[in-house]
Amino acid sequence: MTLVEEFPGVRVRAPGKINVFLEVGARQDDGYHDLATAFQAVSLYEDLVASHADGFTLSVTGSVDTTGVPVDDTNLALRAARLLATETGYDGGVHLDIRKEVPVAGGMGGGSADAAAALVACDALWGTGLSSRELHTLAARLGADVPFALAGGTAVGTGRGDALNPALARGRFEWVLVANPDGLSTPKVYAELDRLREEHAAQIPPAPETPSVSADVLHALRAGDPRMLAEVLHNDLQAAALRLRPDLGAVLDLGVREGALAGIVSGSGPTLAFLVETRQEGYGLLQRLERAGHDAFQAHGPVHGARIA
Ligand code: C5P
Predict the structure, then answer these.
(1) Which string of DSSP letters, residue by residue, matches the chain?
(2) Residues in CB range of 198: below 8 A, 6 or more apart
(3) Which of 12, 20, 145, 251 is the most exposed place for a label (fewest CB within 10 A)?
(4) Atom 3 (ligand 1): residue with closest C-alpha?
């Protein structure tokens, strides 16, 4: 028997993301917020291997702390596999083996990347042959960030964040990320933003009626110019994340003092993303942040979306 026959699994790699710009509008009746964001997929990857099984099972390892990852039916990758099976009438199962590199509950879309990887892997393993449009539709049912993990690259997301339009981006942006051992709950961060807007209207701008990505952000991405992008990085969720985790403010200040062009809370946090000019400068910043006791790593973007590795 050849190695391939002994190991009839499908391996898929999907990226984490940084929202280089995120404007959050009002809460809608379904509980979601209308938003406009510019996503960039970055070179921290979730690796998933799907193999034939009778039921739906999962194992999770990683270079990051994975203790917070559910391994029961609430896991988003397992839900993705089940959704694909239900929608296509596939009556078998799958075992998913996930190796995580994206911080858990960190605001970088690791769980969404797992779900995107599971859709692509199971579709190939089971031969269900969905089009990319069909996969996108299933992805959007699983979570607002799942379609972007499928697409990768650089994109503008509107609606819940799941209506995607690719954005032109030149070159490569270098990031230094600082993970935090205590994750943040995304719904709690959104709820905190609503509360701040209501109770501290004088300090915090109101929800924009029609969120939109600033033209300056699109221009900086197109130009591939990190200095230009550093000037316009923005995240409406940052105030809420900092309110829930005031300790993050000092780390943002430290990163900029130690040489970052700018720093931002990634998505709903608590991971912090620092933009640097070159990989070399990033390495210097990483060392200084590590010396100060932080868990830092380097990544670059944009990179590809979920695909068979
Ligand atoms: O779609 P996903 O499950 O990733 O979203 C997690 C939570 O984040 C939602 O339940 C909601 O509370 C919040 N959210 C939101 N508006 C969005 C995206 C997410 O309020 N556009």
Answers:
(1) --HHHH---EEEEEEEEEEEEEEEEEEPTTSPEEEEEEEEEEEEEEEEEEEEESSEEEEEEESS--TTS--STT-HHHHHHHHHHHHHT---EEEEEEEE-SPTTSSS-HHHHHHHHHHHHHHHHHT----HHHHHHHHHHH-TTHHHHHHBSEEEEEETTTEEEE----S-EEEEEEE-SS---HHHHHHHHHHHHHH-TTTSPPPPSS----HHHHHHHHHT-HHHHHHH-EETHHHHHHHH-THHHHHHHHHHHTT-SEEEE-TTSS-EEEEESSHHHHHHHHHHHHHTT-EEEEEEE--B-SEE-
(2) none
(3) 251
(4) 143
- What per-residue string of b and e applies to 66-83 under the rule 16 or more CB within 10 Å gives b? eeebeeeeebbbbbbbbb
Pocket probe mutation, ligand 1, options 17, 24, 32, max atoms within 8 Å of Cβ:
32
Q: Which CATH number fits domain 173-301: 1.10.645.10, 3.30.565.10, 3.40.50.1000, 3.30.70.890?
A: 3.30.70.890
The residue extents of the domains of the chain are 3-166, 173-301
Tell me the best of 75, 184, 190, 266 to mutate to test the pocket of ligand 1, counting ligand atoms within 8 Å of each CB and taking the most.
190
Domain 3-166 has CATH 3.20.20.450: no
Distance CA 229, CA 274 (A): 11
- Residue 100 annotated as catalytic: no
Q: Kindly report, residue by residue over 128-139, the tens digit of the pLDDT.
A: 999 999 999 999
pLDDT per position as a tens digit, 246-289: 999 999 999 999 999 999 999 999 999 999 999 999 999 999 99
Give per-residue pLDDT as tens, 146-203: 999 999 999 999 999 999 999 999 999 999 999 999 999 999 999 999 999 999 988 8
